[in-house]
User: Fold this.
Amino acid sequence: MVVLTGAGISAESGVPTFRGAGGLWREHRALDLATPEAFARDPDLVWNFYAWRRELIAGCTPNAAHLSLADLATRSNLTLITQNVDGLHQAAGSTNVLELHGSLWRLRCTACRQTWADRNVPLLLPPTCPDCGSLARPDVVWFGEQLPRATLNAAKESARAAAVFACIGTSGLVEPAAGLARIAHEFGAQVVEINVERTPLSAFADRVYEGPATAMVSRWISEVVAGNLDLLDPE
Ligand code: NAD
Ligand code: ZN
Assistant:
């Protein structure tokens, strides 16, 4: 079983999505700040945005959907892939999460490229590399940047091998993550979508649960438990 989550699964924890309501920070569109161009133009502005997101998320807790997935992993063979950078899956107890877009809780040196964990809230700005003193950036994947290759390959491999592939709270607009559902579909997985609205994934999903993740994930899991007991044997 493979689950791909997007910003929508954290919406009910109080983490705003970029698309739709909550996609604004001050007068800026969040989508315009999560780019290498924005950071090159105005690192202080982008760091202020990320420091704000870290503070906001530090005050959020995992919701029923995150917790259900952590529990599901203890009694099934589950690969959890996320586009989220908030760390709420790990806070719910999930381990081995494939983070396609990195993490807000890791920084990366813009010069020597080393990465390190940093959970300081508030963050002293601008953060610098502990070794070489150069400017640090969030270790997240911005629009227009490459996804971490090893993580992406592991995600593709799991999509090809999946019997069930569930997309939860993702718009299906951001490639190549959106392509994972298509790979799973082409390799014969049952594709399930959970979202408050229809997306491009809905067209080929075998099952669409239209509604909020906190309610729909547990409904989906109880139907999976009922219908696919063979998938629930722990490894
Ligand atoms: P996205 O493209 O994955 O869109 C969010 C989706 O969630 C939408 O389709 C929306 O209909 C759905 N949704 C909203 N509330 C929901 C709910 N309660 N239950 C189920 N579905 C719900 O994500 P985005 O916001 O456009 O962000 C783009 C990228 O930016 C992400 O892939 C991520 O890397 C980053 N981002 C991360 C976070 C986070 O870590 N929580 C938040 C915002 C953005
Ligand atoms: Zn450095």
